[in-house]
Amino acid sequence: MKNILILFIGLIYCNNIYAQKYTKTYIKDANNIGLEWWRQVNTGDYEKAYGNLADVLISSTSIEDWTSQISILMNEFGSVEKRIVTNTYFKSELEGLEDGFYVIIEYDVKYSKTINHTESLLLKQNDKLNWKVLDFNYSFQDLE
Questions:
Q1: What is the per-residue pLDDT for 68?
Q2: C-alpha to C-alpha distance for 125 and 134, rounded to whole angstroms
Q3: Chain center to CA of 100
Q4: How far, in Å, CA of 139 to CA of 23, rounded?
Q5: What 3-state DSSP class applies to 102?
Q6: CATH code for the domain of 94
Q7: Which of 129, 124, 120 is nearest to 100 (CA)?
Q8: What is the Cβ-side half-sphere exposure of residue 11, based on CA atoms within 13 angstroms?
Q9: For residues 59 and 132, is the Cβ–Cβ distance under 8 A?
Q10: Which of 27, 40, 71, 125 could be bridged to 45 by S-S, CB 3.0 to 4.6 A?
């Protein structure tokens, strides 16, 4: 009986280590995609950035509309001077969304035309195991 208990505890421990390893990998991979997406947006490569949006966003917004809207937004922010990741976490369940693999990334950002600027990305892994931007949010104050 004691051996079975030890074996059971060992299996739980190994499973936990295995899950933590993959969670860290998911977060690292999603962080890389998020930073690349912001690089594309901040350098005006809107078509590539559009291609990294989740299918649900692409199906609801044409590339022309999206590039027009993001261009207006980026003009309002000004040029990016610095972006720092402040928090990143993995979720498999989010209220209002289907179960899946999600990573939320939060940033402090310095743009030339804003202050107290924060951004967040919600990335979801699609059925091809690629991370795609499902949502992005921001808050800021104008310099004026």
A1: 96
A2: 9
A3: 14
A4: 28
A5: strand
A6: 3.10.450.100
A7: 124
A8: 6
A9: no
A10: 40
The tally of domains found in the chain comes to: 1
The one-letter amino acid at 27? I
**Beta strand segments in the chain, E:** 80-91, 102-111, 114-125, 131-142
pTM equals 0.82
User: Is residue 18 over pLDDT 80?
Assistant: no
| Dist CA 117 CA 122 (whole Å) | 17
Helix, strand and coil percent figures for the chain, each rounded to 5:
45, 35, 20
Tokens 């559009």 belong to which residue? 50
The closest of 65, 45, 9, 36 to 133, measured between CA atoms, is 36
Nearest-angstrom CA–CA distance, 77 and 142: 8
- Look up the domain containing 35 and give its range: 2-142
